[in-house]
Amino acid sequence: MTYAEFNKIVTISKKDIYQETIAENRETMRVKKEKTVVKNLEKIFGAVLKISNRKGFKAMSMRDLSRESGLSMGALYTYFSSKDELLEMLQNQQRAISERTLRERVADAQTVQAKLKAAVFTHLYLSEAMQPWYYFSFMEAKNLNKVERDKAVRSDLHLESVFEGIIQLGQEEGIFRKRDSQLTASIIQAMLQDWYLKRYKYAKRNISVDQYAEFTLEFLKAFLGF
Amino acid sequence: MTYAEFNKIVTISKKDIYQETIAENRETMRVKKEKTVVKNLEKIFGAVLKISNRKGFKAMSMRDLSRESGLSMGALYTYFSSKDELLEMLQNQQRAISERTLRERVADAQTVQAKLKAAVFTHLYLSEAMQPWYYFSFMEAKNLNKVERDKAVRSDLHLESVFEGIIQLGQEEGIFRKRDSQLTASIIQAMLQDWYLKRYKYAKRNISVDQYAEFTLEFLKAFLGF
DNA sequence: GTCTATATACGGATAGAC
DNA sequence: GTCTATCCGTATATAGAC
Questions:
Q1: What are the structural domain ranges in chain A?
Q2: If you count Cβ atoms within 10 Å of the first and of the last residue's Cβ in chain A, which end, N or C, has fewer?
Q3: Which residues of chain A does B222 touch, with a Cβ-Cβ cutoff of 8 Å?
Q4: b/e sequence B102-114, b meaning 16+ C-beta within 10 Å
Q5: Chain C positions with any atom < 7 A from a protein CB
């Protein structure tokens, strides 16, 4: 599977997710026609990510959002009841896409080497397809309320534990060299993180997500000796 | 040199730096007694980092800062003329400490292996000693004005080029295995970054900065084959 | 040098017309 | 469903007393 193919799948699953977002927020969404809601939510979320990634969610005024999304202040407030709720909706939706895709694509890989490769590639592909949100999520995590912040932390630790599990499995099978599995998993995560945190740098250097993925895998091969 | 020893040196050089900060801002600082200025600037900067790292610089109100620093609104404005100028002052000062210390401690190391080790340890020690600022600087970079943002980016690329230079040297000498030197440097930076971005995680797991430094060095040894 | 009190503006949110 | 106009709270910044 190439990145191009992967990207198509993610785009499709996004459509379903909007329907869930609407269902979960029936009370606050005063707009009834589903097609309208999907269209406008896409505009709104896109605008939020664009503005926030430039100057931060707190610094984004509702007037900014109104201008960028093309919807009036009044119209915006028919989709959510407060700026905080908007943030929460966005987080829930994007995390849902992200986690579901990862779960769905969980390696049918048979060997540990293949599992490790699948985990690295899938996560990088996801963060490539949804880079604005991954960046946003990392940068705004501390501005979320406690419930949402906890969800973000748990999600982060979960990813780490996925890598840790694969490494331990490989060590038990005698395929990976003995190393601190948790610390290794943590470092892997740091490497993958850089792909969406420093996107501008890699883009300028014309490094593709596939090249980056191969490189990190080489790193792991050398360290784990496989 | 242990981290404890290193930390003492940094603390001392901080004192000098305050005098420079004062000198550079003679016009806006209406307070004359140097001792008072140093004392209050320390309070102010400490409070800014504390509050901002919890909820972001933009979300920190001057009332928050007044409460946390113990200075009144009026008093605060005798040290800077706007919230933006406060940010700029803080960035200039902390970056100055950081860059100077790195430069001063630039490896007298003779071999490339030693140079690489020195660079890894020094940067980690620095980010450990000044963790609140390193975190702040990463998180608030996009909120700076263009001039300051450019300085931050340049500083980031400079660090990368230091690592790249060492790697190339080692390769020329035939001591390091052939790898993409720039991409390797970039990944090293990502690993070091994680130490201050995910500090809470490593603290909870009782991983010391020295352990972390040794671990990243092991990673590099495996990859570069030395 | 530091305080309290306040001018002024800007942001989130809503009412009510169309 | 969407818009314009506006309320009202809170933020930055400053004036002037001590």
A1: 11-81, 87-226
A2: N
A3: 222-223, 225
A4: beebebeeeebbe
A5: 1-6, 10-16
Domain over B87-226 is classified CATH 3.20.20.70: no
| Residue A82 Cα, gap to closest chain B Cα (Å) | 17
How far CA B12 is from CA of B50, B172, B205, in Å, comes to 21, 38, 30
User: Rounded to whole angstroms, how far apart are CA atoms A136 and B83?
Assistant: 24
Q: What is the pLDDT along chain B (226 residues), one digit of tens a residue?
A: 889 888 888 887 777 888 889 888 877 877 667 888 899 999 999 999 999 999 999 999 999 999 999 999 999 999 999 999 999 999 999 998 888 888 777 667 889 999 999 999 999 999 999 999 999 999 999 888 888 899 999 999 999 999 999 999 999 999 999 999 999 999 999 999 999 999 999 999 999 999 999 999 999 999 999 9
Taking CB atoms and an 8 Å limit, are B142 and A216 in contact across chains? no
User: Is the distance from CB of B188 to CB of A187 less than 8 angstroms?
Assistant: no
To the nearest whole angstrom, how far is the Cα of B23 from the nearest Cα of chain A? Answer: 31
pTM of this structure = 0.95
Residue length of chain A: 226
Helix or strand or coil: residue B79?
Answer: coil
- pLDDT at residue B145, rounded to an integer: 82
Distance CA B158, CA B165 (A): 10
Of B194, B212, B222, the CB nearest to A223: B222
Q: Does A203 touch chain B (CB under 8 A)?
A: no
Round to whole Å and give the CA distance between B37 and B210: 35
Find, among B73, B99, B98, the residue nearest to B86 by Cα: B73
Distance CA A189, CA A223 (A): 15
User: In whole angstroms, what separates CA A222 from the centre of its chain?
Assistant: 28
| Nearest residue of A to residue B141, measured between CA atoms | A55
Quick one: CA torsion of B158, B162, B165, B166, rounded to 10 degrees? -170
Residues A91 and A144: beta-carbon distance below 8 Å:
yes
